[in-house]
Amino acid sequence: MGGFKQQHFLASSPSKRLGQTGEQIAAAAYRKRGFVIVAENAVNARGKRIGELDLVVKNRDTIIFVEVKTRSQPDSRFGSARESVSVYKSRKLLKMAKLFLVRHPQYLILRPQIDICLVIPNNLDNRRFSVTILAHAVQDDW
Q1: N or C end of the chain: which has fewer CB within 10 A?
Q2: Residues ≥6 apart with Cβ < 8 Å to 105
Q3: Under DSSP, is residue 28 helix (H, G, I), strand (E, B) or coil?
Q4: CA 46, 49, 52, 57 torsion: positive or negative?
Q5: Band of residue 102 on the pLDDT scale cut at 50, 70, 90
Q6: What would the pLDDT profile of 23-46 be if each residue is shown by its tens digit?
Q7: How far apart (Å, rounded) are the C-alpha atoms in residues 115 and 135?
Q8: How many angstroms separate the CA atoms of 134 and 33, rounded?
Q9: How large is the greatest C-alpha to C-alpha distance in the chain, in angstroms?
Q10: What is the pTM of this model?
């Protein structure tokens, strides 16, 4: 993937499994909205590891870098999805998104956007989830 690689691993803890499930549900939500998955769990493969892009999706004119936040309950001790993405995390997301575009220039013609996707189970068996997409959650002048 042009300097990026996709990480695929089996989650070792219940919280990591919940996070992986959330990422799969977020991917399905974007697919349902007509987006194509470009990358999942993408990390820069060369140099210092900057961070990870949970999901990269695109349609005809937009490429979206998605930070997925999965919570086991709506009122998490980690705060809301928006609150959990700090200024530091926002900067890392911007840096990763820009690096991704440099390494994949074919996407430079698309309008970039960074979303936060919140995934929360609706019941105790974790089989039904609510998905909330906060579009343009991280802003930049690109």
Answers
A1: C
A2: none
A3: helix
A4: negative
A5: very high
A6: 999 999 999 999 999 999 998 777
A7: 5
A8: 14
A9: 44
A10: 0.83
Amino acid at 49: R
Q: Which two tokens stand for residue 41?
A: 């769990």
18/132 Cα distance (integer angstroms): 16
Closest CA to 134 of 21, 13, 29, 8: 29
Range with the largest mean pLDDT of 75-79, 114-118, 129-133: 114-118
Confidence of residue 131 (pLDDT cuts 50, 70, 90): very high
